[in-house]
Specification:
single chain, mainly alpha, 2 helices, rod-shaped
């Protein structure tokens, strides 16, 4: 039986564009968290606070990037499930009905 040209192998990987968007979102979230951490220490500190500002920026960036990575993973998984359901509907295999 010849294979159809529009069939693609099953894969759990999201599209490269979706992965790139998730990576950019994680970087942007880390940047925002670093700025927030730096600003919190800067507002509360008097005198020489270079180490504190750096530590606040580092902790804020890491915490925000970790949180954003969790969100990105959940979004990528949801996109994968949505694509699977749409493929089943188009092929007539059933699936969840709205």
């Amino acid at each position: 039986m010849p294979e159809r040209l529009d069939e693609r192998p099953l894969s759990a990987l999201p599209s490269p564009a979706a992965r790139a968007a998730a990576f950019a979102a994680i970087l942007l979230g880390g940047l925002a968290g670093g700025l927030i951490g730096y600003s919190l220490v800067r507002v509360q500190c008097d005198g020489e606070c270079g180490f504190g500002k750096g530590l606040g920026a580092f902790i804020g960036a890491v915490a925000a990037a970790i949180g954003m990575s969790v969100v990105a993973i959940l979004v990528l998984r949801a996109l994968g499930e949505w694509k699977t359901i749409e493929d089943r509907r188009q092929s007539g295999g059933g699936g969840a009905q709205p």
